[in-house]
Amino acid sequence: MCPKDQCQREFRVLFAKIDRLDDAVRGNGKPGIQTRLDRLELAAATRTRLLWLIAGSVVALAVGALWKLFFGA
Q1: What long-range pairs does 19-26 form, CB within 8 A, spacing at least 24?
Q2: Phi and psi at residue 28, in whole multiples of 5°?
Q3: pLDDT tens digits, residue range 25-72?
């Protein structure tokens, strides 16, 4: 077998693998890895904001309860 033929076959295999990787990253009509990662990062940021909002509310409620306990109403 000619080394040129072997190289061409190996290049075809490599190009096919690169095409599959490109499709996975970009999506090719469906959400790809890049889109899915962006959505996960957005969800994590939203979850973090919500956690801080809940934590702030709990602290405000606790301070209000202590204030009422010590200074009564």
Answers
A1: none
A2: 50, 55
A3: 888 888 899 999 999 999 999 999 999 999 999 999 999 999 999 998
Residue with tokens 């209000």: 64
How far CA 45 is from CA of 1, 31, 63, in Å, comes to: 57, 20, 27
Residue 1 — very low, low, confident or very high, per pLDDT cuts 50/70/90? Answer: low
- Residues whose CB is less than 8 angstroms from the CB of residue 31 and which lie 6 or more positions away in sequence, other chains included: 39
- List the structure tokens of 4: 């040129």
How far is 43 from 64, CA to CA, in rounded Å? Answer: 31
Q: Is the pTM of this model over 0.85?
A: no
- By CB neighbour count within 10 A (0-12 exposed, 13-18 middle, 19+ buried), where does 27 fall? middle
